[in-house]
Amino acid sequence: MNHIRNFCIIAHIDHGKSTLADRLLEYTQTIKVTEGQMLDDMDLEKERGITIKSHAIQMNYRLDGEDYRLNLIDTPGHVDFSYEVSRSIAACEGCLLLVDATQGVQAQTISNLYMAIDHSLEIIPVLSKCDMVNAMPEEVEDEIIDLLGCDRSEIIHASGKTGEGVEEVLNAVVTRIPAPKGDPEAPLQALVFDSVFNPFRGIIAYFKIVNGSLKTGEEVLFVNTKKKYNADEIGVLKMELQPRPILSCGDVGYIVSGIKTATEVKVGDTLTTVENPCSEAIAGFEEVKPMVFAGVYPIETEDFEQLRASLEKLRLNDASLSFQPESSVALGFGFRCGFLGLLHMEIIQERLDREFAMNVITTVPNVSYQVYDKHGNMKEVHNPAGMPDQTEIDHIEEPYIKASIITRTDYIGNIMTLCLGKRGELIKQEYVSGNRVELHYYMPLAEIVIDFYDKLKSISKGYASFDYHPVGFRPSRLVKLDILLNGEPVDALSTLTHVDNSVTFGRRMCEKLKELLPRQQFDIAIQAAIGAKIIARETVKQVRKDVTAKCYGGDVSRKRKLLEKQKRGKKRMKEIGNVQVPQKAFLAVLKLD
User: What are the extents of the domains in the chain?
Assistant: First the structure.
């Protein structure tokens, strides 16, 4: 155990984690790096330059004549995947805190750091991208010292591109990070920090042994799901899986046991043996709860079953995706899907398109509300269509978050205006360093779901960084806003909105739909309504055919007869005609501003 080191790399999104990981793998001769981001194996990850799934890999390193086994657990940087990051941190004894020398400390850096401090990890500060022309090493060093209270000499300067400082990083991992602690003789107690799907072998769970040991062929138990399996194969994680007959205390490895469904392996669960179970589970396990809900519908109705199969296959890879069937008058049959956040939703949409060639319509994303009726019963509503009648509702509660925004002092005014417009309440503001400030707000999750992040980036010229944590539910004055086309409600365009914003939002929706709906041979009335009260209206004018063009001269009654006939036809058409809402109309609602 004294020669094992378990560590992870934490940083804000796009601060160079995966590039540094490549250099570490190359330096320890674990693999030959042929292209960038070797640990990111999804095409999407490579294209966007982000890590979506956390990865683990073992490296061998020799220092002062001793051989060490280093287990690196790479983590995603985006706020949507913070639970995965917390479990990766729980499986380590130390971490590299990576800060970009060109951008400095950002929101995610701080939230991930607090997570590491909570798990009492040894923190090694690393300044990355030091070779860049616009690097500001002295200023960023000051920020790190303010944040950690460490000495300037403890900060390692590195560059994933040139390989500078890689040897120092590896030496620091060996000398500064403690070896794992635990009792090899105790009953098996292992933390599951990730799982992946293999089409031939089922779900493969990654774990770190905290106490005890595990042999091939033993019967194991997942404590929280109460499921039992046989350990058909166990081993360590190199670039591919390498089987081992036994794994003991402090080791990071994998288990193959023919698990078919991803929901049976929960990240953060505890693994133990059936024969000699541990007395208690490892603390910190929680069910991953979706934060954002949206309807996903196939464009062709007959593709419904194919969409179900595609979503089930995706869930094998990503257990945090949840879905259930629902139907809509406007869009037919589809699914109401739950996502961790907007980036997660975008990735699932993209993967449906690429991996399964599924062309889908996604409705306006919304969050889940708690609706209390007059008798005190609570119902969770994920979809505006599921709202009870207004007369039965006593009050509605919506989820709130605590947001932290780090920005330059020049943009404070604009950002405060944006947050107040989104019903935010300022808790405090504190200066991180010279001209950088951290703002803390309580905000409704529904307000940040659609376009908050884009607006924040544009008004701060890309400098502001944003991070949030859920803080429970609060009562709120919400109403259901319906859009009617010729008196018929289009359920896919219904939204829940705050009373104060409802009239302006309804008016803007009507104006936008007027631009987007194609003209028909009859007038289309677009109305926004709250209950029975119409709050806004626009009309898409009809396309007229000049039926009297062929009449030249003669009696006026001939023209009148033709016009009367046209009028009767239009009236009948309006009664039986229906209005198709194009896909871009649903997307436009997301980008109303």
Answer: 4-176, 189-273, 292-365, 370-476, 507-590
Considering only CA atoms, which of 153, 174, 150 is closest in space to residue 61?
174
- For the chain, percent helix, then strand, then coil, each to nearest 5? 30, 35, 35
CA angle 300, 304, 306 (to 5 degrees): 105
DSSP assignment letter at 540: E
The token duo for 586 is: 């649903």
For the segment(s) 370-476, the CATH number from 3.40.1360.10, 3.30.870.10, 1.10.357.10, 3.30.70.240 is 3.30.70.240
Q: Judging by DSSP bridges, how do beta strands 156-157 and 122-128 pair with one another?
A: parallel
Burial of 265 (0-12, 13-18, 19+ CB in 10 A): buried
Fold held by 292-365: Alpha-Beta Plaits (3.30.70)
Q: CATH for 507-590?
A: 3.30.70
End-to-end CA, the chain: 57
The token duo for 314 is 């995706």
Is 189-273's fold the same as 292-365's? no
The amino acid that residue 451 corresponds to is D
Give the fold, CATH level 3, of 4-176. Rossmann fold (3.40.50)
CB 214 within 8 A of CB 231: yes
Alpha-helical segments (H) within 205-303 = none
Cα distance between residue 459 and residue 522, in whole Å = 43
> Measured between alpha carbons, how far is 269 from 246 in angstroms, rounded to an integer?
21
State mean pLDDT over 201-213: 85
Q: Distance from CA of residue 282 to its chain's centroid?
A: 25
* pLDDT tens profile 294-345: 888 888 878 888 998 888 888 777 767 888 888 776 677 888 888 877 778 8
List the CATH code of the domain at 189-273: 2.40.30.10
Backbone angles phi, psi at 404, to 5 degrees: -125, 130
Which token pair is 184? 């090899």
